[in-house]
Amino acid sequence: MSDIRIATAEDQVLLDKEAKYCSYGDTVHYIDPPRIFSRCEGSYVWDTEDQAYLDLQMWYSAVNFGYANPRLNNALKQQIDTLPQIASQYLHKGKIELSEMIAVDAKKKFGLDGRVHFNVGGSQSIEDSLKVVRNASNGKSLMFAFEGGYHGRTLGASSITSSYRYRRRYGHFGERANFIPFPYHFRGPKGMTKEEYGSHCVQQFARLFETEYNGVWDPKVGQSEYAAFYVEPIQGTGGYVIPPMNFYSELKQVLDQHGILMVVDEIQMGFWRTGKLWSIEHFDVQPDVIVFGKALTNGLNPLGGIWAKEELINPKIFPPGSTHSTFASNPLGTAVGLEMFKMTSEVDYGAMVMAKGKYFLEGLQELQKRFPIIGDVDGLGLALRCEICGPDGFTPDKATLDYMVDEGMKGDMLVDGQKLGLILDVGGYYKNVITLAPSLEISYPEIDLGLKLLEQLLTRAMKR
Fold first, then answer.
1. Which residues pair with 306 in a beta bridge?
2. Radius of gyration of the chain (CA)
3. What pLDDT digit, counting tens, does each position of 242-254 carry?
4. CB neighbour burial string for 267-287, b if at least 16 within 10 angstroms, e if fewer
5. Are 231 and 264 in contact (CB under 8 A)?
6. DSSP for 136-189, written as a single string
7. Nearest 5°: phi and psi at 46?
8. Which percentage of the chain shows pLDDT scores above 90?
9. Which pTM was predicted?
10. Distance (Å, rounded) from C-alpha 303 to C-alpha 121?
11. What is the largest CA-CA distance in the chain?
12. Residue 237 in contact with residue 201, Cβ under 8 Å?
């Protein structure tokens, strides 16, 4: 095990400049000293000393299709040579065709007509969805959302994100959501199956509508004070918590009975992360609004957006100028998005992701048998979780996971004579969950490598 890594002289010059000139507000300095990276390809990134790191989080699932994916990079390069820029008030072919592709797919899967509205990223698209929902509900500003949910850090998005720390210093612009417990079975009541616990959570939510005195429902006129329920089908920052398969269909019944929209946040789990284009497809429900971002362009260009049902977003109810961004539906982003759709349609991409995810999860389950500090593992497609706990296999152990992350970033692990680092992401209610989001293009030997590196980190953690 190596000592604390010392920055090179060249890196130290840059770090000194960063300390003086860069805002720390948009950077998380988890590692001391922070690592500076110089190139990337596939499942790997390299630092300025040309040390390779296997990346198992892929920019918070923004780079689903691997770093420097040649096909997607070429789509961007070709667009630069034709129509690299155009104001978002004007039309171009890419915007129209990408909208059609998303809307036609939604019609096929959910049986609903709808339209697509673009913006520059996930949080901005959440803001647009809030406008759509408020507009359609005659200005209702109250929303339901989940404990453990994350929807962004803009003022509107942070109001429906359960972490108070994202709001604490800024106050409220509008109303904070009513946060409802998520069916986190590993930490739920004992004695229930996962499906029973899912039904129990729905029943606890449904009781809010039994009487006017529960504060959300007026039975005399049959109206709720709440406009929508914002859900991540699989919680992202909350620790890749996968709910029971019966949960959302039962929840949607309650919402439909009381005229409350379901807004599905697919920013982190969309675009095949779970083996489906949208993770909500696993749960047999019809969403009213879908919000997307991140992997649409494989991280090459900021582009996000929403799909909404026709009655929520048609030009009569949501007319021109209802919301606007200078760089929305930019031609570089839409070109990459179109190529991504074409690329993933040429093979059974979902089956490929599910097979790799099953293989990776089986490897994690084998590690769980050998290391008592792994309390829980789970996964859907290539969205995988590994919860680090104390010796009892249940008490959250953030300190041990922090240690493992730091050790992974030292770049000093040896596998078959090759020195490597490992990039992990931390999530969960107690910040004790490894949230694994590898490239969907990851090879089986790279999955094996990732498991070997995790084994080394777990061994170090047990010996410290």
1. 117, 291
2. 22
3. 999 999 999 999 9
4. bbbbbbbbbbbbbbbbbebeb
5. yes
6. HTTT--EEEEETT----SSHHHHHTSS-GGGTTTT--SS---EEE----GGGS-
7. -125, 140
8. 91
9. 0.96
10. 5
11. 73
12. no
What element of type H or E holds 376? strand 374-380
- The CATH code belonging to domain 75-345 is 3.40.640.10
277, 270 Cβ separation under 8 angstroms: yes
* Structure tokens belonging to residue 394: 């249940």
Whether the predicted pLDDT of 383 surpasses 80 = yes
Domain parsing of the chain, residue ranges: 9-68+348-463, 75-345
Cβ–Cβ under 8 Å, residues 295 and 65:
yes
Own/partner pairs for 76-84, CB < 8 Å, 24+ apart? 76/300, 76/301, 76/332, 76/335, 76/336, 78/335, 79/331, 79/332, 79/335, 79/336, 80/332, 83/331, 84/331, 84/332
CATH code for 9-68+348-463? Answer: 3.90.1150.10
Confidence at 4, pLDDT banded by 50, 70, 90 = low
- pLDDT of 350 strictly over 50: yes
DSSP, res 287? -
pLDDT of residue 29: 79
